[in-house]
Specification:
alpha/beta, Helicase, Ruva Protein, domain 3, ATP-binding, 19 helices, five-stranded parallel beta sheet, VpsR, binds adenosine-5'-triphosphate, Rossmann fold, about 50% helix
Length: about 450
């Protein structure tokens, strides 16, 4: 790693130079480019260290015949760990190198130059790449933060307490376990925590352990080396590794197989992962947020979840309330959804009966269901007033309280059955697509099919 021996000006921007060759170009004293400070890395480890210590948005890879594949591999790994870093290739040995790597060139590089360096042109290109990197970073932060900002907390005691807790835990780096029924906003809360945490500029990587097929999940989480198994025709960086310096959100952790629970426990204890078919370990520094809709203590009793893993992840536990437990937030939440979902140049409001029906309904699918019903109502309604029929829920019948309970349970199951059957039909009996349409995981979808006794 090069040492800086010139005085730093405010204009100077750090550029990582990945140089596995013996070429000595781009030394600070010889460049005459006052805006750029070149920091040389002659190995992948050294490059990682530089990225930890400096804010580099632009990187140059020196590409020569001798180390071509090693350089490409390093660029790929560094890009996976910091996707706001943009690359320029500097070719040492003429044009034919570009032919060799043209199949993947645009995956990693924005532009290329040749040696000897044309300084004026390099200055111009680096400025361009730096601007692109800033735009990319801004849009990435914008998307993550705007999603997290889209949470509507409501005014109930339950939701205000939740907000207080989220604000508190966001400042720590502790592992968090979020519980709550499907659709209560566990994923959104995880994003909210990340967006307020010291890791907010790092990646937020989500893995839905219930949605990935068992054959894929190991490699999705831990990655694999080329040739690790049939079909592994290139190296794959797993999602844990991609969360380096950021937050990893492991959703539906209760659906992870016992075998993978062991691997996960090892990772949590050692902070190292080993890609499938690999023979070296990679250190990953990330915060982990787990979410589950199943009661993990019951899962332990049923032999489906490891007790040691449970104690390792259960450091700070949060429970998101079901919508029926903060029903007084319905008017606020429903109007918030309506505002967000209304197309431009339209205006809708709820009839008094629609609000009454929403407050009386049991919301098995929680805020997700509320959002979906309002989305459907916007399409179905024939005026600018949304009624309870547009929402597909009816006002509760005025009967004695015991028959009310029976009615609600029956009604809930009827609505679930109706929504599931429609989604299955709409998607030509493709279960994954049907689950996607309802915005729930395949596991949840199968659970509902079983619960509603639907025969496929
Ligand atoms: N408090 C909230 N304010 C606004 N939107 C919300 C809120 N909670 C949930 N949502 C919306 O409801 C939908 C479901 O949220 P999310 O996926 O976070 O729920 P979940 O609990 O993780 O569900 P699952 O357990 O099925 O994965 C999303 O579209 C989300 O934007």
């Amino acid at each position: 790693m090069s040492k800086r021996n010139t005085t730093t000006t405010h204009m100077e921007r750090d550029v990582l130079v990945l140089n596995f060759t013996d070429e000595t170009c781009l030394n600070d004293s010889r460049t005459n480019l006052p805006n750029w400070h070149f920091i040389h890395a002659n190995s992948l480890d050294c490059a990682y260290k530089i990225l930890e210590q400096h804010s580099c948005y632009v990187a140059i890879a020196l590409v020569g015949h001798s180390h071509q594949q090693a350089v490409l591999k390093a660029v790929k790994q560094l890009s996976a760990s910091q996707d706001s870093l943009l690359w320029l290739a500097l070719f040492r040995d003429g044009d034919n190198l570009l032919d060799n790597i043209s199949y993947c060139f645009t995956d990693y590089f924005l532009d290329y130059h040749h040696l000897p360096v044309d300084w004026a042109r390099l200055d111009h290109t680096l400025g361009h790449i730096y601007g692109m990197a800033q735009l990319k970073l801004r849009s990435k932060l914008g998307t993550a933060a705007s999603k997290a900002n889209s949470i509507c907390f409501g005014e109930s005691k339950e939701m205000q307490q939740l907000k207080e807790t989220l604000d508190k835990v966001a400042c720590t780096d502790e592992t968090i376990l979020i519980g709550g029924e499907t659709g209560t906003g566990k994923g959104l809360c995880a994003q909210y925590i990340h967006s307020l945490s010291p890791r907010r500029n790092g990646p937020f990587i989500t893995v839905n352990c219930g949605a990935l097929p068992p054959t894929l999940i190991h490699s999705e989480l831990f990655g694999h080396e080329k040739g690790a198994f049939t079909g592994a025709n290139k190296q794959y960086i797993g999602r844990i590794e991609r969360a380096h310096k950021g937050t990893l959100f492991l959703d539906e952790i209760g659906d992870l197989s016992l075998e993978l629970q062991i691997n996960l426990l090892h990772f949590l204890e050692e902070n190292y992962i080993e890609r499938i078919g690999g023979n070296q370990t990679t250190e990953v520094d990330c915060r982990i947020i787990f979410a589950t809709h199943v009661n993990l203590e019951n899962a332990i009793e049923e032999g489906l979840f490891r007790e040691d893993l449970y104690y390792r992840i259960n450091i700070i536990q949060l429970e998101i309330p079901s919508l029926r437990n903060h029903i007084n937030d319905i008017p606020l939440l429903a109007n918030d959804c309506l505002t967000k979902l209304t197309p431009p140049n339209h205006q809708f409001s709820f009839s008094d009966q629609a609000l009454e029906a929403m407050e009386a309904y049991s919301w098995p699918g929680n805020i997700r269901e509320l959002k979906n019903r309002i989305q459907r109502a916007i399409i179905m309604c024939e005026s600018d007033i949304i009624t309870e029929q547009d929402l597909g829920i009816s006002l509760p019948k005025k009967t004695d309280s015991s028959s009310d309970v029976i009615d609600l349970v029956k009604h809930r199951s009827e609505i679930d059955t109706e929504l599931i059957l429609a989604a299955i039909r709409n998607n030509g009996y493709n279960i994954s697509a049907a689950a996607r349409e309802l915005n729930i995981s395949r596991t949840t979808f199968y659970r509902l099919i079983k619960k509603c006794k639907i025969k496929l």
